[in-house]
Each structure stands twice: as structure tokens, then as C-alpha cells.
Amino acid sequence: MIKKNIEEFKKFIARGNVIDLAVGVIVGGAFSSIVTSLVNNILTPVLGLVLGGINFSNLSITFKNTKIMYGAFIQSIIDFLIVAICIFALVKIVNRLMHLKHKEEEKPAAPAKPADVVLLEEIRDLLKESKDHKEK
Asked: What is the fold, at CATH topology level, of the domain defined by 2-135?
């Protein structure tokens, strides 16, 4: 029973979908850290300058001895929007490249010659060969 489950698990892991998913998760995590750095180190300070030095991550209110950090929530929304925009742009670029690749592959082949034309060309070639043999 255990041996059978181990074999099924090996087959499951070896399938391309699982490996693709794992690669996607790893790349997504790395991409997320890049976007978070972009937001925290570049965009948030710029927004702070535009909005008069407001730092979103420090925004909070206190309600009955409880500090509610709504600035961190705003920061998370900004992170999400930037990640979504980056992914959208990346998908658009990849789709455009794939569409161009498919267009190149789908170039129509030269139209096939009608059967009568092919037959006439074969007859012409045979007559030419026959003529060449007679001259030798």
C-alpha cells in the first residue's frame, strides 16, 4: 500500500505541470520581492514627496488603546496594484511575441499547382529527357 502511494507520488511529481507550477511559484516569489523593493524604496518616497512627506507605512489611528495601522494596508494595496500592472504588462508582451511567432509560422505555403499543370510539366520533362537521349 505504501509502496503504491510512493509510486503514485513519484509520477505526480514527475509530471510537467507540477514542475512548471513549482518554477512559477519560485519566480513569482522573486518577482514579488523585486516589486516590493520598487514600491518601498522608490514609489513610496516619491508619493510621499508629492503628498507632502506622508509616509503610508506609519499612518495609523488609535482606538481604545489599539493602534490600527491603516497605512500598512494602503501600502499592501499599492504593492498589489504594482504587481498586477507588471504581470499584466508582461503577459501582454509575451502574448504579442507569441502572436507574431504564430503569424510567421502560419505564412501560407505556395499554392499547390492544379493536377493538369503538374501532369503537363511531367510530360514536358519526359519529352525533354527523351530528346536528350536521342541526341546522344
From this structure: 1.10.1200
